[in-house]
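Example with several molecule types.
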Amino acid sequence: MTTAAIDAWLEAPLRRFVRDSRVRFALLLEPNGQVLAQHGFTRAVDVMAACALAAAIHASADRLGEEVNGIPFRELYHAGAKRQMYLASLAIPSRSIVVLTVFDSDTSLGLVQLYMRALGDAVRTAAPALPPAARPALDANFEGELNRNLAILFGRAPAASVAPEASHPIA
Amino acid sequence: MRSPFEQQLTALVRQPGVLACLVVGESDGIIVDTVAQSGVDEHAVAALAASLFRRARLSARAAGLGAVGFLELEAECGHICATGRDELVLVALTELRAPLGRLRGSMLQLAETLA
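Resulting structure tokens for the full complex:
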């Protein structure tokens, strides 16, 4: 299974998380749906769809949490017949990262939650210091960046080809 | 909210050298009820011990040994003991000095009521 990240600092924490938690699929994305890293997906179109859906679910849970709970819901779990889904949000300085995981009976929700906490710690440690930036939810060049990120994740473009100013928007 | 296990778990933790007792879902590793001394990472213990018990159960079955009655893991500074029934696992975390014979009897007795 392939693991790939747009930013190099995300790759090692994601690899460790996948190895320890034994999830089948993992997707790290910005709250606006921009992909940051992935494990297990073989097609760019699947990553694109999963990012869009995960961002929408996360936004809905955020808002619903504020309505009924006073603060956003940070975690969401669904159990299917064979596969289960766990969606969580990692808070790191000046931004947050949404993590979508899909797993089966090879692991458990408790283990995934346990190693998600470790992933959060690892990402917070590895993340470069970035100033908070007021940006719109969707950049004007969102689609271009998404296509470029998918090309990098699936080996159709080298990571170095991404100009620094075109890399991830900070939510 | 009180769980049906609270009283029995409290009695187990009162035994000498017992640091924590938990009832955990075997398939999801989530705590159903727990009584623990401070400093114990209950969620981590629950998730990992439930996984350990499940794999021990699968190993025993694959080896043709039947069901797992009691699992005891001896570590440098203590023990993890586990027994289970009907998708629930009873886990105890102890210091090295804990009298395991008495604890084992109490755990097996409590496990009979897990359902």
